[in-house]
Amino acid sequence: RLGHHVTVVDPSPNALFALERRAAEAGVADRVRGVQGDILGLFDVVERGGFDAVLCHGVLEYVDDPAEGVRNAVAALRPSGALSLLAAGLGGAVLARALAGHFTEARQALTDPAGRWGEGDPVPRRFTAEQLAELVSGAGLEVGAVHGVRVFADLVPGVLVDTEPGAMDALLKLEAAVAELPAFHSVATQLHVLGEKRP
Fold first, then answer.
1. Are the C-beta atoms of 71 and 45 separated by less than 8 Å?
2. pLDDT surpassing 80 at residue 199
3. What is the 3-state secondary structure (H, E, C) of 12-39?
4. What per-residue confidence (pLDDT) applies to 197?
5. Helices 129-138 + 66-75 axis angle, to 10
6. Coil, strand or helix: which one is 159?
7. At what angle do helices 103-111 and 90-99 cross, to 10 degrees?
8. Residues 63, 129: contact at Cβ < 8 Å?
9. CB atoms within 10 A of CB 113
10. Distance from C-alpha of 131 to C-alpha of 115, rounded to nearest angstrom
């Protein structure tokens, strides 16, 4: 809506169909292009060095080689481009399992190299803020802001947020207040890292 041209890369034809429909409904179909592909085969569908910003959200958890995925995202950037990286946080999963009374699963997530709590875990891999920052810097970017996302939101009972007047607004303000505080990164459900490509 601000006039930017957006390319969306997704392996799912259904997701791309939904994107096309939503872009048309929003009146921006002429500025949104969807292509079928993934981060490891990125340059089969888009050009290198062609983008001012790359948003890699909810991707690294599902690829066999996260470092290669980040390198590809960086290679898609123009000089001075920015990378926005969002991935599942390890600490948030450990805390959530422990608070649910699943202490063995919490310990399993804490000690598992991929941060998984067991066979039934739907997330293949989780990260710490340090691991994500290392992936970003290792790909040649300068690490900018690091944010914790959904620090409290996934732990607060939904009935409390839905029934308590002003609770949702207060929760959002609390999330914003703690997002950049390193003390809360270790318990966030998701972690967001910004990186900048230097010319």
1. no
2. no
3. CHHHHHHHHHHHHHCCCHHHEEEEECCH
4. 85
5. 50
6. helix
7. 170
8. no
9. 6
10. 12
